[in-house]
Amino acid sequence: MARLGPGEVRTVACIGAGVIGGGWAAHFLARGYRVVAWDPAPDGAARLTRLVDRAWPALTELGLADGADRDNLSFAGSLSAAVAVADFVQESAPEQLELKQKLLADIDAATPAGVVVASSTSGYGMTEMQTAATTPERLVVGHPFNPPYLIPLVEVVGGKLTEQWAVDWASEFYRLAGKSVITMDRELPGFIANRLQEALWREALHMVANGEATVEQIDQAITDGPGLRWPAQGPCLTFHLAGGEGGMAHMLDHFGPSLKSPWTRLEAPELTPELHDEMVDGCEREAAGRSIADLVRERDRAIIAVQRALGREHG
Amino acid sequence: MARLGPGEVRTVACIGAGVIGGGWAAHFLARGYRVVAWDPAPDGAARLTRLVDRAWPALTELGLADGADRDNLSFAGSLSAAVAVADFVQESAPEQLELKQKLLADIDAATPAGVVVASSTSGYGMTEMQTAATTPERLVVGHPFNPPYLIPLVEVVGGKLTEQWAVDWASEFYRLAGKSVITMDRELPGFIANRLQEALWREALHMVANGEATVEQIDQAITDGPGLRWPAQGPCLTFHLAGGEGGMAHMLDHFGPSLKSPWTRLEAPELTPELHDEMVDGCEREAAGRSIADLVRERDRAIIAVQRALGREHG
Fold first, then answer.
1. Which of B121, B187, B197 is the best mutation test for A, with the most CBs of A within 10 A?
2. Which of A154, A204, A221, B59 could form a Cys-Cys staple with B30, CB 3.0–4.6 A?
3. CA of A35 to nearest chain B CA: how many angstroms apart?
4. What is the ipTM of this complex?
5. Peptide bond into A147 cis (omega under 30)
6. Which residue of B19, B200, B270 is in closest CB contact with A200?
7. Would you tell me how many other CB atoms lie within 10 Å of the CB of residue A268?
8. What is the pLDDT of residues A191-208, one digit of tens each?
9. Which UniProt keywords apply (chains A, B) (predicted)?
């Protein structure tokens, strides 16, 4: 079977016209693809149109790909009609396991052989979703962030019955479609970014539940605090700089004991020599030769640019 | 005693010339204050000068206050000489409890009556730090984020022996000095922002320890994912929008069960009707009449601005 290369995709089927499905449709249109959508709801087409219309000005401002056209969107009369013409399928149905299992089996049955099918699920592993499919080897998770037309991250991971070529193909396709891809080599509940986000969210809920902080204080704590650093440098590099010239190694030596402190309800792992070294080595790999002073300069420039972009510079 | 108003402060004493103390010195200089610094290390003055020199171009670019001058920085020969001339004292010594207790008592003894003394501590409560001071009622925590000259957030909270006027005075002073202030009405280990950050950090360490994710994947997951939303809208408003037109109420109904999922090692609190309502009401208060569509437009504009500012728009 001559399989289409990730760079040869012309038509993407978007199944589901909710916030995520509509966001994907907008993204693929802006990157120059034809999009065929389908949703079982009677107002699905209207909802999808509204979602894409709302996103389009932002996407235009950000820069459309050559040939990108709002009118490359069509709405199919049936699931099978939508996926029959697809070079890639993105499923974004509600988060209900049985629904996903059945829908992915239906998609699989109607999609041309060799075409990769990705699920936007934020909660399920592909292993538990692919059980009813006839050719489960081409089913992968392609988990986006809201809104998919602006947040670059996609986490790609297969299930037990997924073949490696499908994971690789999807990762390469998303990259060509302008996404920032993390390819995971094993299933993990919540994947990576949602585990990080969920830990923060649960701690926030605990604080509100206990009357320790208000919703507004929690949001202010992030938007005016660590949230300003994270678009530029993630949590590991952030702490690499918190260690001063000594970087992550000094940070772990100095603040290691604080992992025993009740600073969150989440218990910390033991800071073994192996974990210590992995954190230090990882930061060195990311720094890729840049000194702490270099990284501080980059961080400062980025924070200033972000503040300015948000209209928050000093008067 | 005629106490100086928060708007009448001219001279700030910065005690400690590490990354945080130096960052505070740079911030106060840029906002037009005179800064008298002190550090017990032989190379303290040189280190402080280097830190301020490195920060100054960024601060100049961001916009200096009227009268701000890099040369308004001096280094005192002793702790008592530094605080004797201060209208406000910011202590940023290493995170060691006994050292902080002793140092705050020494500062308290040498600082003019009625002058507020704030500690940059990220780990201790003022109740445990103020034990040796003679006039502990004017001691508060004023916890900044790195770098203090660019990240606006300061968390202000007193200890058991702190009087309310000192908490209010410090909060107002920081606001006038250009900071975004959260005034807490009770002590909480790690305060608010660090509890959120620490939950995320511990989950990250768990993933690295278990070989589930690399340092680079964790940083990419944040910088290219949720981290792009958080400078504009905190975690609560972010999820308010994840609920579509139904907002936080729909989000909690739809994703509430996921609080039982093993998406992080942190156990979630029970989603009681009270917690449900507090989250929904808090988001409504923050939205302040803005519809979900309004907030989506604001979020999209902000994410685009941030991406552009970081040079990440599509080619």
1. B197
2. B59
3. 20
4. 0.95
5. yes
6. B200
7. 20
8. 999 999 999 999 999 999
9. Oxidoreductase
